[in-house]
């Protein structure tokens, strides 16, 4: 089948015009953190969820609130605590004395954007209720099943420092997040601007510049982004190297990897690669797109052994070695 790259490129440039406006609007409120903002857009346009890890005070909550505000979308923040119940999240059946019937009261999960703040503060029951909603895009209350609104994006945060009294997400549940994004401190210049912004009289507010329908249309356009077979094979090589490092002459990693990425890793790497090309306003995927988002897609999918931990090797170092070893198409 003949692929007209120029035609696809022109279509993507037209369809992705809103990305600049969206970035500009978010940039009014969020200073710096370009990587985090881009990852939010990749999650949004790739129909995936994001796990954000960073110390408190790095604008994780502000970022998703700003994104929701610039999208004319419904946003709910849920603070996860040890006493939270699944019903507090998805809703419950309430008895109506007047009618003598039970009525459904929908929970805060019914929104376009959910901020699951400190997801590891709640027990497994609550985590699994949220993760079912993420996977199935629906919620069952009593005997009825309700579809969640579209677009639907969960951004969960966890604090990497304080682990006391937390319930770490099991690997199978972490795998449902498209990206795990690590956030670092701002630069000195950025922090100066943040400080000035916060002590000024007029705090900037994001205005709605894009509709939910625009996002759903853009998701369709992302599918049209061209991915060459060489890039597909490159993705498979990277993911396979996390499972069988010996096959790629990475013998020394054999004792460091407990298990590698599942097929979800390949799928999400391909989708995120297409979206990365889309937000760069390009109609085709290049190896740099895959390399740019590889760490975010794989860091929570590659489990390291005790031996690796003893030698202070983490999943990111392993991914870096794999990227260095595999030939770029």
Your description of this structure?
By secondary structure, this protein is α/β, with parallel strands linked by helices. The chain has helices at residues 5-15, 17-29, 34-45, 60-69, 86-90, 124-136, 171-174, 188-199, 212-224, 229-243, 263-279, 287-298, 306-310, 315-325; strands spanning 50-53, 75-79, 91-96, 101-106, 113-117, 138-141, 144-147, 153-158, 179-182, 257-259, 303-304. A hairpin with a 2-residue loop joins strand 6 and strand 7. Helix 12 (287-298) packs antiparallel against helix 14. It is globular, with a radius of gyration of 21 Å. The relative contact order is 0.16.
Taking the alpha carbons of the first and last residues, their distance comes to 21 Å
H-E order:
HHHEHEHEEEHEEEHEHHHEHHEHH
> Tell me, what's the shape?
globular
Largest sheet: 5 strands, parallel
CATH uppermost class of the largest domain: Alpha Beta
Estimate percent helicity: 40-55%
The count of β-strands is 11
CATH topology of the largest domain: Rossmann fold
CATH-derived architecture of the largest domain:
3-Layer(aba) Sandwich
Structural class given helices, strands, pairing? alpha/beta
* Domain tally: 2
CATH superfamily of the largest domain: P-loop containing nucleotide triphosphate hydrolases
Strand content: 5-15%
The total of helices stands at 14
- Going across the biggest sheet, name each strand in turn: 2-5-8-1-9
Detail the poorly predicted runs.
none
